[in-house]
Design a protein that fits this description.
Its main location: membrane. By secondary structure, the protein is mainly α. 79% of the residues lie in helices and 1% in strands.
């Protein structure tokens, strides 16, 4: 669900018919689906990977920490550096690198080579997603732009709903290397789709925001407060998410099957949250949705922390309910927060604000997963839920001081 700092321009459409243009956006969504699947699939597989490498889960979690940090830092840099290139070629190149990196991961000979492969994936993903969103907005008529962007973002939504449990099932049945192989196939299909379905000249003149323009948006107090809320939301989210497998094994004595089913529950709730969150935003306003989401997140995380004090059979229902609420609330927050960033200033600055939000989000993911790894290494599993809940509560308190649009 990465946004873009590129603006739509008068690029020629991929097809003369509206359906053809939206179909082109569908080809671009194949890439976001592959990226989303790879990003979310790794959490339930960390214990098995740790066992294979003879390392602790908290150490293997550096695969998540480094990936999110590199993506956050590299995305705006690579986007600016590639500004003079044709968008179609950029997307094919980025997805080609992403696919090759997944092949390298599938055949990695050790943890070091696997980590290097994920670094390469992060750079490619950080370049692909904002450019895909920008191109989707450029190849269609203005009245179709919202639908085109929704289609590209929908690739990530489908990854949450289907890719996450699919990765868990494939990984547990055939080994974690097979999941990288499956994502490589998805990436190859995306490359072929873009190659055949996107006009060669599409998006050749998209505007890319420079450093001065980005700093100008960051300089606005209201934008900084909104980005602060995103930061605490994302830190809390990823302090807990990568460690859902060891948490379930510790608290509920779940083995791989139970973990896989619970991860599927989280994924279904998260997909519902993205969809319903958008509708709730339109009906009740973004501020109410953000506040309710952060409140529910706080309660869900603290419930997970408290459940570690209970016997497994007693903790079962509270944990499953908390996991479902967590998945729903954490992604219901997202469309409402994006709507507020768009409304926080003139339309021309919206792409930059959303791009900054994406970098902030992935920075938070990296910080949160690092803190969660430290807590896990210390053996205090309840501390993960406690810390994540405190982050969500901090975001809620910061929201109370924000004069953002409703």
């Amino acid at each position: 669900m990465t946004s873009t700092s590129l603006g739509p321009a008068s690029a020629p459409p991929a097809s003369s018919s509206p359906s053809g243009s939206l179909l082109t956006a569908g080809f671009l969504a194949l890439g976001t689906f592959a990226i989303g699947t790879e990003g979310f699939m790794i959490a339930p597989l960390l214990p098995r990977m740790a066992a294979d490498f003879g390392m602790s889960v908290s150490t293997v979690a550096s695969l998540v920490i480094v990936f999110t940090l590199v993506l956050a830092i590299s995305s705006p840099i690579t986007t600016v550096l590639s500004a003079h290139l044709n968008r179609r070629q950029v997307l094919i190149g980025a997805m080609g690198i992403f696919t090759a990196a997944n092949v390298l991961a599938a055949f990695s000979t050790g943890f070091g080579s696997l980590l290097a492969s994920r670094l390469l994936m992060a750079v490619a993903a950080g370049l692909y997603t904002p450019n895909a969103s920008a191109l989707a907005g450029a190849i269609v008529k203005p009245e179709q732009r919202g639908r085109a962007l929704a289609i590209v973002s929908g690739g990530m939504t489908i990854a949450i709903a289907l890719g996450l449990p699919l990765g868990s099932v494939v990984g547990h049945a055939f080994g974690w290397r097979a999941t990288f192989g499956a994502v490589a196939v998805m990436g190859a299909v995306a490359v072929a789709g873009i190659w055949m379905g996107v006009n060669r000249q599409a998006g050749g003149h998209l505007h890319v925001a420079g450093l001065r323009e980005r700093l100008g948006v960051v300089g606005q107090a209201q934008i900084r407060r909104l980005l602060g809320i995103t930061l605490f939301w994302s830190v809390g989210a990823y302090a807990a998410y990568p460690y859902i497998a060891p948490y379930l094994a510790h608290t509920l004595s779940f083995a791989e099957r139970g973990i896989g089913l619970t991860v599927s529950l989280w994924g279904a709730a998260a997909a519902a949250g993205v969809t319903v969150g958008g509708h709730l935003n339109d009906r009740f306003g973004s501020r109410r949705v953000v506040r309710l989401s952060l409140l529910l997140l706080t309660l869900a995380f603290w419930t997970l922390g408290a459940a570690t004090l209970l016997a497994p059979h007693t903790a079962l229902v509270p944990v499953l309910v908390a996991v479902a609420v967590w998945g729903f609330a954490v992604w219901a927050f997202f469309p409402a927060q994006m709507a507020r960033l768009i409304a926080a200033g003139p339309p021309a600055q919206a792409p930059v604000a959303l791009s900054l939000n994406t970098s902030t989000m992935y920075l938070g993911f990296s910080l949160g997963s690092a803190v969660g790894a430290g807590i896990l290494a210390g053996g205090w599993i309840a501390g993960i839920g406690l810390f994540a809940g405190c982050c969500a509560l901090t975001g809620l308190l910061l929201e109370g001081r924000t004069n953002a649009p409703h």
